[in-house]
Design brief:
5-stranded parallel β-sheet, binds magnesium ion, Rossmann fold, binds thiamine diphosphate, 21 strands
Amino acid sequence: MVPDTRTLPPDAPAGDRRKVPGDGLALTSTQLIEFYRLMVTSRGIDDREITLKRQNKTFFQISSAGHEAIGVAVAAHLRPAHDWFYLYYRDRALSLALGQTPYEHFLQAVAAESDPASGGRQMPCHFCDPRLNITSMSSPTGTQFLQAVGCAEGGRRAAGLPDMRARVGQVEEDEIVLVSAGEGATSEGEFWEALNTACTLKLPVLFLIEDNGYAISVPVEVQTAGGSISGLASSFPDLFIAKCDGTDVIDSYKASRAAVHHCRRGRGPALVHAYTIRPYSHSMSDDERAYRTVEERFAEEERDPLTRTRQLLLDLKVATAGQLDRIEAEAQVAVREAATEALGQPQPPPERALVNLYSETAPPTQPQFDTEGSAAFDRGSKPLTMVDLVNRCLGDEMERDPRIVVFGQDVADASREEALEQVQGKGGVFKVTHGLQKRFGSERVFNSPLAEANIVGRAIGMAARGLRPVVEIQFFDYIWPAFMQIRNELATMRYRSNSAFDAPVVIRVPFGGYLTGGGIYHSQTGASLFTHTPGLRVALPSNALDASGLLRTAIRCDDPVIFLEHKHLYRQVYNKSREPGRDFMIPFGKARIAREGSDLTIVTCGALVKRSLDAARVASQKDGIEAEIVDLRSLSPFDMDAIATSVRKTNRVLVAYEDGLSWGYGAEIAARVADQLFEWLDAPVRRIASRDCWVAYAPQLEEVILPQVPDVVAAIRELAAF
Ligand SMILES: Cc1ncc(C[n+]2csc(CCOP(=O)(O)OP(=O)(O)O)c2C)c(N)n1
Ligand SMILES: [Mg+2]
């Protein structure tokens, strides 16, 4: 008869426990047996998937073999649907321990439409389960760290703000966020950014690093200075560190218990460095015999967590060999049945390929976002600049929706609260967020470190739990460190999670040239890099009024938006407007006819709108040519109907844009016009754009590199004469 509860000897585990406080470790035999059942189930799923892949019944396989012990041990201290989880692909046992089923894992492997993690969009072991607070994982290594920080931070901020808390869903006082990854992924800069912010804000994030010694074929000593990630991280303040043998359930249990305890008590983040093994090569696309010696591989076999746990249970007399054999056999039956059932499930039908790219309930294209006709202009007030109206829109929206947080570099008035009373406030290098911190407090308006991926990654983590981040990237020229987060994380969130999660984040970005001296790194364009990213929406207003209306829509809609604010247009007198009212919205995909004309159409946006208007005036006065100007306002989606209507009238098209000519935004417009409106055209589609060059600092060079009014005039004349 096995006693139901026993205290295991504290000297049982291997590994370094110097920093693990407390020795009393109570585990029931039932728990230990459950650990074993989950571990053999996890290995059984991997083995079954490998067979299915060889039979071409699944399409990819990556295993959790060797990582089972740390997985079940850490999960024992965590609370699904209470804590939050950012997992990685070797966390099959962990996810089973949190409550997922073998059937659900197989549904993803066979790419079933009913796969609850992604609806057949993602490879196997890309876990996602909103019922358990397992957020959607993607494939890039290391992108999950900053999102986990944002998730923990979102909970913390909401916990302190009753209005926000009431709107964002469940927030638990003692919740923690688990984020896991391999040791190789810690070489990504975002790991260090995440540790930095987690420690700065003392957030309850548990970093679980499952160190199997290899990142595909690259061994840890090539990856990590000194060969130990916990050693490298040891000087972060308030970071609790525990090392353990991740193939030993007891050692793993103790280390993760201490780490969870630290986080739950609000003492800051923790890092568990678990030494695991990787007995099955990196994935089925890899053969480790190409780079590992026979001796090394055999030595690793000695540490197989399944063998070790089985022996432990026998040594402790928790179960007999016969009982363990039966558990294994039952697990195999359950796995086989789950696989068979999943194999009968159909893949998504072809007509569903594009579903879930964008919100179906609140996309920015919907009529609910068109209040343009009922603007409530305050007749008595002065016209305001684009900076003023964007600032007012942000303030109005923050007042309306307590879920909105605003952050980025320099966006706060003054990070030091003691300074806040005495100073005027910074509020952004362009002053667009000026006064918002004073008005809404430092929990909702705050500065980030100088790290662009940090801003977007955290925003995605906050959005996953219901906050509405409106962040600023200081200059478009410096958005690139965040591009991985924007393209692979933000834009894919809805699609890859089958709409279980979304990411309604607005990224405001000062953009563009014509600064006279902006140079290479303060003049950049490149909108097409974002319009080429499915899942994103992109806007580029050319005047203060449109900026107000488009930003309000961007904030209220459920899709992620890149909101390009042209720096050159920020304070121009010619584009000012009166305040249009708190509900003034312009939907995306609705162009504006900036000038009516009958001889040719100029399709344009941003700073080229004014240049086209000036050129059209010259052409009208000097040549009698009347150009119609279509200001697109939103670049993705764009208003093809407005273009078509104009082209059917004028039969000639010039596309004018600020990106470099080749592969730039207008190239696609020109191609669409040529393709869809060919029979309406009396002349070839012409383009005016920047030279395929950086914008040089010398004003004389800037002038020839960026398209100018005379260039547009010349193109109008040429096109009209064709
Ligand atoms: C950003 C990025 N670069 C490269 C890859 C390809 N890749 C997938 S897994 C992997 C190795 C990861 O090693 P590690 O973090 O140690 O995890 P392990 O697979 O060993 O568990 C690489 C290079 C990727 N998915 N993402
Ligand atoms: Mg590794």
